[in-house]
Amino acid sequence: MIVDKRFLPVADVFFRMFDKPGQGGGAIAAYLHGEPVLDVWAGWADKQRRWAGDTIVLSFSTGKGVASTVLHRLAERGLVSYDAPVAQYWPEFGAAGKENITVRELMSHRAGLHKIRGLVPGRYGLLDSEKVAAALAAAPPDARRLTGPGYHAVTYGNLVAEVAARVSGMPFQDLVRQEIAEPLGAEEFGAAEFWYRVPPEQRHRIARLFPKVNFLPAPWATAGAVMSRMPGVKGLAEAGMADGFDEVMRSPRAHNAVMPGWNGVFTARSLARMYGALANGGALEGDRRLLTEETVEQLLEVQTRRRDYVLGFRPNWRLGYHPAWVATRKQPLRSIGHYGFGGSGAFADPETGLSFAFVTNRLGNAYTTISDGRFPRLGGAVVTAARRS
Length: 389
Fold this sequence. Notes:
This protein is of the alpha+beta class. 30% of the residues lie in helices and 13% in strands. The model has no long low-confidence stretch (mean pLDDT 94).
């Protein structure tokens, strides 16, 4: 464990969140100016097992930030241009009126391809990345993309992974290792857990998620069908409520797939290390460079300030990230990161040189499994500590 004395208040808040088995378990980690200052864990990975330093957990949309960083590494080497049409690298994508949609639009949720309801047949069809990519390539874009972004809750990772694989000629999971884990020296620092397809020999380390994923009083299929016809929440149902997806998310079969929009498995340590580089001009410990300072500056630029027609508010999307929303009066407006279903999340704040990550197996709170106040509270505490240091 690591607890820099300046961050003792953050650790204290964290430990109080996991003092009973019913609260599950979790971990937090932070870097400041490229150096680790916080790495602690607590609670239970399941009913019979305490959370350990090497416990890993499904962190849902938190993985979108990792997938985005892979593509930025490729862009920095000139393999892909943000303002080029996606179809330049993925010709099939140009079907159904999508020939002019750019990589920049795709990475800021303006491709109009948020829908997963009916995208591929079969309950487990969403775990077949090739079928999903083919279906997205053939699909027409939603016309609302011209008026604002629409959060690609599930499909974003497939889109980014396909572009990355096409321009590099490598499977996406190999790219994650080559472009993220290896440059960060992750294995050396015990932070190699950047996984979408989890190796079978490592799966015993995965914490059990609870309670059930369904956050609604009605059965998932019924609620999804009803919501998909209701103005105001229609986009949310289209983007994240395919029939049976609540079961798919909890199935062990999810760890056989590479679906970077939602099935990333990480430790807080690994996420904090990646974002630690982004918070520190693209580098850690001086000589481990992930991105150039110029690229990091591009990542901080807001791509659209329009209302998101899926989420119903203005996320101010960056290139694959959103800003950190934390419980502090002065928000870190130049931050980038991504939160996940259930409450996990990670971000970088270049203004303070801080990165922070939180992962947990306890989805939400007693009222909803979507999320809760733990991450904003911890994030606010760690930003305050960094500003005082």
